[in-house]
Amino acid sequence: MGFLSFGLWVHHMYATGIPHLSLSFFSIASALVALPTSVQIFTWLATMAKGRPRFSIPMLHVGGFFFVFICGGLSGVMLAMVPFDLQAHDTHFVVAHLHYVLMGGFVFPMMAAAYYWLPHITGRQPVQHMSHAAFWTIFAGFNVTFLGMHLTGLLGMTRRIHSYTDPLWEVLNFISSMGSFVMTIGFALLAIDLIMMIFFGRRFRRDPWGAGTLEWAMPTPPASYGFAAIPHVDGRADQIDVRTLGPRLAAGQGYLATPNADQETMGVDPMTGAPMQVIVLPTATYLPLVTAVLTGGVFLSLILKVYILAPVFAAGVVGMFLLWMRASAPAARVEAAPGLTLPNHRASGSPPSLWAMRFILTADATAFTSLLFGAGFLAISAPGWPPETWPGAGWIVAVPAAAAVLLALMPRGWAAVLAQVVLVAGLAWAVTRLSGMTEHAAAASLGVIGIYAAVHAVVGAVIAAATRGRVAADRRLSDLWQRYTALITLVAVGFPFALRLLAAGAA
Q1: How far from 308 is each of 143, 356, 462, CA to CA, in Å?
Q2: Which helix (H) or strand (E) is 334 found in, with range?
């Protein structure tokens, strides 16, 4: 779904005159997203079928979500088809589809979550009669408001219209207006109900919904530390007897029950739940807040066009990250339970930071691929390609290419830092040799791709210098980034030739 979503947003632009090839590609993507969405829907239904659904207040909102969201998805498949979309574009049919998707996909689940978990936060249950009235008023009001808009849209009523030229439009819009008043009353009841629950709801001891998931094994309202001890889970996590498990954990019958100065949690095998490591969490510090403020300063300086401050703030962010690394716990082994000693995450072979780096590189590779796709798409569809004179490439890319190969093979330590510095210099030189970056998208695309790779080499040099001489887990992070930087650099220096072939083939 994430991959297909990169091609979904263009279904808002079918009527803007984009090329037919683009229409075909984005129409297919918009229709195909119904497949993973259907898998999600049937997965949720199968999950509920394995249990005994009770139509309590949260479950009512989940049922509303299913009905409304599926209706929005069906109209979305209709709008994915270019001929139908051209007829329904900018009409109330699109307005109805949008609200069915957003209200169904976001608002109803959020209301279900509020009713389900607020008792855990407040220690009080909702006022049942008002809760039912609020749900049915919102559900009925929403459908009365937006269901008729499908018909007014098919009858040709556009958005942002100041008068009705068809008497049927007037009748349907009057019904929609009445439905909006009903829906507003429902949301007012919801707000009153939640306020009454927080202050006047009936108290309970534990697990008011009869659920079987771990959060209800904590005290209610929960203490600041969550669990007094961490349970061993070796079965389905939705079939736990939390009423007996909760007192056992409060008595310290679990992992990490012995208090110490560190904040810790367990790292387990994701498939079996077997304990693997003890993850030492950061202690109380202002470093995240300061880092966030400096990061905001980078973007604010760019927005306000005070460009000279952007590198200053960026250097501050790098400094905060380096200070943050120094505060990490030393590698050691920790007693997780009587008779069970585990490595902490710094001594483990698979720490959370390693998984985080893998996910970061996956997301970064997706962004880099999107950048390459954008340039390639222009080469085969935009007018004026290929340009009359190609930007200089040729042999000047040999320097960053050689540096990238050296980086991929280079040992750790200062040699890796030196290789990345050479790589940055080579990429910077290659970018400065490009001509016409403000005149044609070909040179601009190649320049941006080169700068993208250079920024990664700068980050890689900092990481390699910071992790020099540290534990193996930190050096593995540096190695991953180092190899990835070498890979995208080789792609970047080879892309000018691929772009030229694409443009020549389209011409």
Answers
A1: 53, 32, 21
A2: strand 333-337
- 3-state secondary structure (DSSP) of residue 367: helix
User: Is residue 42 pLDDT above 70, yes or no?
Assistant: yes
Number of H helices, E strands in the chain: 17, 4
Are 96 and 75 in contact by the 8 Å Cβ rule? The answer is: yes
Backbone angles phi, psi at 213, to 5 degrees: -110, 160
Using CB atoms within 10 Å of the CB of residue 409, give its burial: 0 to 12 exposed, 13 to 18 middle, 19+ buried. Answer: exposed
For residue 73, give the H/E element and its range: helix 57-80
CA-derived radius of gyration, the chain? 29
**CA separation for the pair 34, 1 (Å, rounded):** 9
Model confidence band, residue 38 (pLDDT cutoffs 50, 70, 90): very high
The structure's pTM equals 0.73
**Complete DSSP assignment for 180-237:** HHHHHHHHHHHHHHHHHHHHHPPB-SS-TT---SGGGGS-SSPPTTS-SSBPP--S-T
pLDDT in tens, 407-448: 666 656 667 777 777 777 777 777 777 777 778 888 888 888
Evaluate whether 356 touches 275 at the Cβ level (below 8 Å).
no
pLDDT tens, residue by residue, 219-271? 888 887 778 888 888 777 777 888 888 888 888 888 988 777 778 889 988 88
CA distances (Å), origin 121, targets 111, 197, 206, 321, 415: 15, 11, 12, 33, 53
Coil, helix or strand at residue 107: helix
Is the pLDDT confidence value at 290 over 90? yes
